[in-house]
Give the backbone structure.
Amino acid sequence: MVKHIILWNLKEDIEDTVKVKKGIKENLESLVGKIPGLVKLEIITEGLPSSNADVMLYSEFESAEALKGYAVHPDHVAAADGFVRPYTASRVCMDYEV
């Protein structure tokens, strides 16, 4: 199993961060069941005050190959291009095998 974790910070000029976070959450979480090998995907938009990221993606894949397929899957690309990339200023990623 492979775990894939991403932390994003939103762009500073976003006026409605609640709407943006909701769009990220709804669109990425809807990918479960659509992409082969994607076992679990959860978006966290409300961290504790000690957090220094705005949005977190936690996901699990059957294998490293499944993660590679997810990265280029048309449904994932559409969600990322439409609801994530236009609104994020920074991205940090950690992938690991368990």
